[in-house]
């Protein structure tokens, strides 16, 4: 398990899952959490999952355009991170227009409030553009997904 520096990139190819099974939002979220754990971005998968679930219980995080946007600030997060999953079969994140086929899990340290909000705002601004969503859905590999997100979303 690697241990990223505080200046670690927001997303890497190791934080991208191209073909997640559908099912329920918990299972999809857990798959993305496992990527964060493997990359050394979180210290406790169960603890972080509980924090994400608690946030999700406050308000659904589905967005129009087939997007799920689970997120949480957590003491279990070591560095601000974004994990991305494509879910071809779709998964219900409570969006008004149906299931999410793109899921973005934002993980922010408890003390990183402004980072979390910057990432969320930047991502939300890009996600309203169908061309951005389509580029992620059709990207040939995890490296391309990470490059698109880094170029379009990562705080500058």
TrEMBL record:
Transmembrane segments: none annotated. Coiled coil: none annotated. InterPro entries: PTrfase/Anion_transptr (IPR016152), PTS_EIIA_type-2_dom (IPR002178), PTS_SugarTrans_NitroReg (IPR051541). The keyword Transport applies. Residues 9-152 form the PTS EIIA type-2 domain. It comes from the Bacteria. Keywords: Sugar transport, Transport. This is PTS sugar transporter subunit IIA.
């Amino acid at each position: 398990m690697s241990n990223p520096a505080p200046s670690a990139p927001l997303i890497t190819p190791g934080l991208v899952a191209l073909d997640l099974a559908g099912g329920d939002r918990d299972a999809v979220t857990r798959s993305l959490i496992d990527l964060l754990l493997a990359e050394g971005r979180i210290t406790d998968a169960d603890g972080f999952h509980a924090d994400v679930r608690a946030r999700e219980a406050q308000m659904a995080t589905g967005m129009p355009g087939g997007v799920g946007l689970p997120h949480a600030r957590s003491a279990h997060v070591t560095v601000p991170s974004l994990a991305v999953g494509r879910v071809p079969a779709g998964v219900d994140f409570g969006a008004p227009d149906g299931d999410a086929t793109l899921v973005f899990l934002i993980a922010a340290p408890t003390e990183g409030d402004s980072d979390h909000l910057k990432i969320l705002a930047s991502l939300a601004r890009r996600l309203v553009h169908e061309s951005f969503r389509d580029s992620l859905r059709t990207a040939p590999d995890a490296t391309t997904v990470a490059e698109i997100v880094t170029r379009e979303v990562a705080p500058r």
